[in-house]
Design goal:
By secondary structure, this protein is of the alpha+beta class. Helices cover 17% and strands 34% of the residues. The radius of gyration is 31 Å and the shape is globular.
Length: 924
């Protein structure tokens, strides 16, 4: 799909990219935050700037005209009240700010003399195209009427909009670009960094000497590092993380033999390479900054270097001549520490990961802001794991300026990745192929899988890369990791802010199962709580006698948990003594039987009131949001909700929490809610609120079912595998086939313990007798078939009803499956690889593998047809660690030794009865 054709309004763009010596450009208001007004004429669209300033755009050959009006904004006041913030400058003038009493945010109001006087403004507007001046306004004074600009841009590549002072200083020089727009065809112009160089900047010699001394103390490594010949999926222990020096002490290398990230330190911090040793490829084509922070409306690069002569590739010797990005944060120091868990997982119940001791190194760089941001300090943390090709990054921002600052936005990562293809066509391909890496953050929402829930990964255009093959230069090859909005965090003096974390993992193959295994190992390493996989029952009633009966049946069948389900009548928000006493008594009863008890609470998909619900920024009213309307978690009601939930869990002692309608990412335009100031900070603060609750529960050993993948890295244990609820009204045979398809499709990138599926025992969404398992004794084969395919995949189901069995025969069927599952629990919860997708026409199946277990693999195969079938099935055993031979037995029969094929596969002949299944255990 081609980009749109039309008018490009500059006032709608990200103005933080513009250069301005003091203050920040303002959208649709003057630079002082007042209305746009020139010689008494009012305007609603424009950009307010303070001389000196520059806005730079990359044009296309299809950009045709630039039009706008220009003038000096009318002064609202010339005297800045003494109770406002004055910051003295070295030349005797002062920066003036006013403070919003409600939000605590600063607003730049001008530059003046020490007696708080603003001069009458006088400026010169200049416009350059490809470095040549094509317009000069001459001196424009405060009170002059607007001038109209209309310029031909055909065959121009770059446009610069400059405001200079008129030679009498910059006090009161509040200039306005009014209704600025570019007419274009097909490809939009793009705001870019204006490359404004105030002066040539170098690292102080003493600081350079200090840093180089620390670097030279590190062990040395020669580049290029040889391509690894070992497979970390089978032998991860040999890949240890270390921090090295290379290139005669110029660079620091963070490496574990699988991947390496290489940093240049002098004259400033910059990643100059990212190497995938599994494939031998250098994954970066160019040097970028380490991220960005936008503070008080102005964007600052975190480290980074400029002066690269080509952006399609990099040579190490080029880096020697690169220089500091003006107004960027500078490196002051670095440290090396051991990697530690970021959540103190309680680990109180069965899990595939028995002990969590992640190891590796954390390389931390310390940076400080330029000039007037010198009191703002940033820590950039890079954690590389032993035995896994994944690096984690997060940042901390500290304010030591003596004044409040607002962290408007931040970019955690910016990497100029080598593109995997070079499409030449003029228009934009749909879609572009992305580099073969995985990027995932612990900040997401509203999705059952990572691709849906991700909200921080952006593949953007790199405007520096003008030698790319794509004629339109729109190849998305600049990876940026950031929030879509905010955090808009007001930081008082002495305050600190911590970002989300992001993990980057390169792959060595495009094979879907192998890529999936990379991710599954990642989750075991960074979120081991997702491998907890207790056997639970969903009780549809909160009546004590029914709950106690469910607990007793769990004891008798080997189940481990009872969750009092939705529609049961339980209300966690009821703080009355009777309500608390009722559920504490039930929990005490469950604990006395060795059963965990928990409950359900609905959050976001509910309406509370006009005062509480999130406010739609387009309408100014509630409604029209995700789920229609939802409560704002940063309202007083929201904070009370979380207090009540936590209190209920503490007072009753329950250890399971099922939070339906978890925060889905709603923004809120309210300015009256108690715990956020407005739209821009609403998403960050709401999600932080719910993520903190889940982290607390994880550390307390409370098990959590959360129907949103976006919270698994925050401590939640399980989310839905994904299913259509009305499908449970279909006939039982269809339910089984569709359920198995969901399992097969849902476990490419996820571990079994990360997912739940659903099996309603009572009628659900209709369907009548043909769809319903109750009475259970009349449908034992179907009931058992559900359990076999679910437990066989390692996926727990919400068996939802008021009982697990109704007769002794039913009870024995449940016990048989649970005993089988517990016998093979470790291997059935291990990574799943795919054999054949269910299609109803022939056999289907999957296989678990784990080279660390006694059972190296367990394959489960099904026959959905009405006739017995005999097939030769190929089992891929490479990931079991078995290379030449394997012992394989069908069910509990005697094992047969097989010689493996050269590709580590084995062919076995199997007969599967009609409408049935069988399974095979692989051992060494």
């Amino acid at each position: 799909m081609c980009p749109s054709t039309g008018n490009f309004w500059l006032s709608n763009q990200d103005l933080s990219l513009a250069y301005q010596q003091y203050g920040s450009p303002m959208r649709n208001m003057s630079v002082a935050g007042e209305e746009l007004s020139v010689a008494g004429e009012k305007f609603s669209n424009g950009i307010g700037v303070q001389a000196k300033s520059k806005i730079k755009l990359r044009l296309t050959r299809k950009s045709t005209r630039f039009t706008c009006k220009i003038g000096v904004n009318d002064p609202v006041q010339t005297i800045v009240p003494s109770d406002r913030i004055n910051i003295p400058l070295t030349d005797g003038t002062m920066l003036f700010y006013k403070t919003d009493e409600q939000t605590g945010k600063k607003q730049f109001t001008g530059v003046g003399t020490g007696n708080s006087v603003l001069s009458s403004g006088s400026v010169v507007f200049r416009i350059l195209a490809d470095g040549k001046e094509i317009y000069n306004s001459g001196i424009m004074n405060s009170g002059d009427k607007v001038k109209t600009v209309d310029l031909d841009l055909r065959m121009k590549s770059f446009l610069e909009l400059i405001v200079d002072d008129a030679g009498d200083g910059i006090s009161g020089d509040h200039a306005d670009w009014i209704e600025p727009q570019i007419t274009f065809i097909q490809i939009k112009p793009l705001l870019i960094n204006p490359d404004q160089k105030e002066e040539t900047e170098v690292m102080p010699k003493e600081k350079q000497k200090e840093l180089q001394s620390k670097i030279h103390a590190l062990p040395s490594i020669e580049l290029p590092v040889p391509k690894t010949k070992k497979d970390w999926l089978l032998e991860d222990a040999i890949f240890k993380t270390c921090v090295y020096q290379t290139h005669e002490g110029k660079d620091i290398v963070l490496s574990n033999g699988l991947i390496s990230r290489i940093f240049r330190i002098c004259p400033n911090l910059a990643t100059i390479d990212f190497i995938n040793h599994m494939t031998g490829e250098n994954m970066l084509r160019a040097v970028s900054a380490e991220g960005q922070v936008k503070i008080d409306g102005k964007t600052y690069m975190l480290g980074g270097l400029e002066g690269q002569k080509e952006f399609g590739y990099t040579q190490y010797e080029w880096v020697d001549s690169m220089y500091i990005i003006p107004s960027s944060f500078r490196i002051t120091d670095f440290s090396i520490s051991e990697l530690k868990p970021h959540i103190n997982w309680a680990n109180k119940r069965w899990s595939l990961v028995k002990e969590w001791n992640p190891s590796g190194k954390v390389l931390t760089f310390f940076l400080e802001g330029p000039k007037y941001m010198k009191g703002v300090k940033v820590k950039l943390h890079y954690a590389l794991y032993d035995g896994m090709p994944s690096i984690c990054k997060w940042m901390e921002v500290e304010n030591h300026t003596g004044l409040p600052v607002t962290l408007d936005a931040f970019m955690l990562e910016q990497l100029a990745m080598a593109e995997p293809e070079s499409p030449v066509k003029w228009s934009e391909p749909e879609p572009f192929m992305k580099p073969n890496i995985h990027v995932e953050s612990d900040w997401g929402f509203h999705g059952f899988i990572e691709r849906e829930a991700d909200r921080t990964e952006y593949w953007n255009i790199d405007p520096r890369y003008t030698s790319q093959c794509n004629y339109s230069m729109v190849t998305p090859c600049l990876l940026e990791v950031k929030l879509s909005m905010g955090p808009d965090e007001v930081m008082p003096d002495g305050a600190a802010f911590q970002s989300f974390r992001t993990w980057i993992m390169p792959f060595d193959s495009y094979d879907r199962d192998r890529k999936g295994l990379f991710l599954k190992h990642l989750y075991k390493k960074i979120a081991p709580w997702v491998t907890e996989n207790p056997i639970f029952f969903h009780c549809t009633s909160s009546k004590p006698e029914i709950v106690k009966k469910a607990i007793d049946q769990c004891v008798e069948t080997g189940y481990e948990m009872v969750i009092i389900s939705f529609g049961s009548g339980l209300n966690m928000e009821d703080e009355s003594p009777n309500n608390i006493a009722t559920y504490k008594e039930l929990n005490d009863y469950a604990q006395s039987k060795g059963i965990e008890l928990g409950c359900y609470s609905l959050l976001s998909s509910r309406w509370i009131s006009d005062e509480v619900d999130v406010i739609n920024p387009q309408t100014g009213k509630r409604g029209g949001m995700i789920f229609g309307s939802s409560p704002c978690l940063s309202s007083e009601w929201g904070h009370e909700y979380f207090r009540k939930i936590r209190s209920f869990m503490e007072k009753t002692g329950m250890t399971i929490f099922e939070n339906d309608g978890s925060y889905p990412g709603n923004v809120c335009a309210s300015t009256t809610h108690a715990h956020h100031t407005g739209l821009k900070d609403s998403q960050w603060k709401q999600r932080r609120q719910i993520a903190d609750l889940y982290k607390w529960m994880c550390e307390e050993g409370i098990y959590m079912n959360i129907p949103d993948y976006g919270y698994l890295l925050n401590g939640a244990n399980k989310t839905s595998i994904g299913y259509r609820e009305v499908n449970w009204s279909l006939p039982r045979e269809q339910q089984l086939m569709l359920g198995r398809q969901v399992i097969y499709d849902g476990l490419w990138e996820r571990l079994p313990g990360m997912c739940w599926t659903f099996v309603p025992l009572t009628q659900y969404h209709g369907g009548g007798k043909a769809a319903t398992l109750e009475p259970l004794s009349e449908h034992i084969p179907d009931y058992k078939a559900h359990m076999i395919q679910n437990y066989g995949a390692g996926v727990q189901a919400c068996y939802r009803g008021h009982r697990l069995y109704d007769t002794e025969e039913t009870k024995e069927a449940v016990i048989e499956v649970i005993n089988w599952y517990k016998k093979y629990r470790n291997i059935l919860n291990s990574e799943l690889i795919h054999l054949r997708r269910p299609d109803g026409r022939d056999w289907d199946g999957f296989m678990h593998i784990n080279p660390q277990e006694k059972e190296k693999a367990l394959a489960l195969v099904f026959n959905p047809t009405n006739e017995d079938i005999t097939r030769t099935i190929t089992l891929p055993l490479y990931y079991t660690g078995l290379l030449t031979k394997a012992k394989i037995r069908e069910k509990e029969n005697k094992a047969i030794t097989y010689k493996l094929n050269t590709d580590c596969t084995v062919d076995i002949k199997v007969t599967i009865q009609a409408k049935s299944y069988t399974w095979f255990v692989v051992e060494k």
